[in-house]
Design brief:
Elements (H helix, E strand, L loop, with lengths): L5 E2 L18 E6 L6 H9 L4 E6 L6 H9 L3 E3 L9 H17 L3 E5 L16 H10 L2 H6 L1 E10 L8 E6 L16 H17 L10 H15 L5 H12 L2 H13 L10 H9 L13 H10 L3 H12 L6 H28 L4 H32 L6 H13 L1
Parallel strand pairs: 1-7, 2-5, 2-6, 3-4, 3-5
Antiparallel strand pairs: 6-7
Helix pairs in contact: 4-6, 7-8, 7-10, 7-15, 9-15, 10-14, 11-14, 12-13, 13-14
């Protein structure tokens, strides 16, 4: 995962998962669901505590995947689309397992939208999460331990894109037990709690416009990310949405004209982020990183081509963009591991030395580690060179640089 994406090590709000001395409350993380099975992987990598995720039940159908998912602390949730008998009873069994884990101080994760969408926005919450929370609040052992519900934002700059940024942010605990009727699990209480959770998640998320305005808003977001060198504040994206809505017809026409002039689509590449770096006078500098060139050459000649092979394979074989990373990352992991093993064992045979095997393995691993900053810089610099002659596009000048000047 860290080879495929630039995982931001700075988890905003990680302090909300810290425990006071002698106290470990049970916690439930609610997250927007964008990238198929890669979302829980990112959360488990970026956060220190062990996470127990609710996962769509169809992922457990095959015996091998079921064996692996259970050992990764995943719990199956059944939906009407799964068309199984005793759906309610099956989900209650899953809830009971989760309650038992919370009573021991576990941290569970759930995607309250009950489905993924390959867009950077928060959709309507289903009420299964609220029902689970209502049940947890009725359990004395959970109440005695302490129970917190926290929003968790999982953000991919581009879902299937090799070496694009992936970030995690944790928001403050959401008050739940003050909602009238939540203890009795009434329908009105579930609706109110779902709305409160959605509002809390939106406040710490990248939440772009839907419908026809999504792509122009995404382009502006990527431009600002490039200019700011990281995530864009929530209020800035909200201001961008307001500005774009003032003249949606002109925005769409300017955006489509930019694509026809050679700009890459923001869903598919990073041209707009590169434009943001130019506009902020922060183009990528290769010179400070060139000492890494020998390591980069070793990386590219041995395993650096694997992510590109995996990316193309996923594009051709997986229609749902949100699941392309789900294929690309394991394929890259297996490919790189096998290549390292073959080269290391081959060196041991050639040099007739057992010590050559770990030595070559460590050399390849070290070369990859040293190469990644230069690999990222090469990727960014290529995009910057390509779009520099296109910076006069009306969409950039009127809609993107205007927002940058305001911030």
């Amino acid at each position: 995962m860290a080879l495929w994406h630039r995982i931001d090590p700075d988890v905003k709000g990680a302090k909300h998962l810290e425990n006071a001395p002698g106290q470990a409350p049970a916690r439930l993380l609610i997250g927007g669901h964008q990238n198929g099975l890669a979302d829980p992987i990112l959360a488990c990598i970026a956060l220190q505590p062990q996470l127990h995720f609710f996962t769509r039940a169809d992922a457990f159908r095959h015996w091998l995947s079921r064996w692996m998912m259970i050992r990764l602390h995943m719990m199956p949730v059944f939906r009407p689309v799964d068309r199984v008998d005793n759906l309610a009873e099956r989900n209650m069994a899953t809830f009971s397992s989760a309650y038992a884990r919370l009573e021991q101080g576990a941290i569970c994760g759930i995607f309250s939208e009950a489905g993924h969408l390959d867009e950077r926005r928060i959709r309507r919450f289903r009420h299964g999460s609220a029902r689970f929370i209502a049940g947890a609040l009725q359990r004395k052992r959970i109440r005695d331990r302490g129970f917190e519900v926290l929003p968790m934002h999982l953000d991919f700059e581009r879902y299937e894109g090799y070496r694009t940024a992936a970030r995690v942010r944790i928001g403050e605990a959401i008050p739940c037990d003050d909602i009238p009727g939540i203890g009795a699990d009434s329908g009105a209480a579930r609706v109110a709690l779902s709305q409160r959770m959605r509002d809390a998640l939106m406040a710490c998320s990248v939440n772009l416009e839907g419908g026809e305005m999504y792509n122009p808003h995404l382009a502006v977001c990527r431009f600002l990310e490039g200019a700011m060198g990281g995530p864009v504040p929530h209020h800035t994206l909200a201001a961008a949405a307001v500005l774009l809505r003032t003249d949606p017809a002109s925005v769409k026409a300017a955006f489509e004209a930019a694509l026809k002039c050679g700009w890459g689509h923001p869903r598919l590449n990073d041209d707009f982020a590169a434009a943001g770096r130019w506009a902020a006078n922060k183009p990528t500098s290769l010179a400070p990183l060139m000492w890494r060139l020998p390591a980069w050459l070793i990386f590219m000649l041995t395993t650096g081509w694997w992510p590109r092979v995996a990316e193309k394979a996923a594009q051709h074989s997986v229609k749902d963009v949100a699941f392309r990373t789900t294929l690309s990352i394991p394929l890259t992991m297996v490919g790189v591991s096998l290549t390292w093993a073959v080269l290391s064992l081959g060196a041991g045979v050639i040099y007739e030395s057992l010590a050559a095997v770990p030595a070559v393995f460590l050399l390849l691993r070290g070369a990859q580690y040293l190469a990644m900053p230069l690999e990222d810089a090469f990727i960014d610099a290529r995009a910057e060179r390509r779009i520099r002659p296109l910076m006069s596009a009306p969409f950039i000048q009127k809609w993107c640089t205007t927002l940058l000047a305001r911030n």
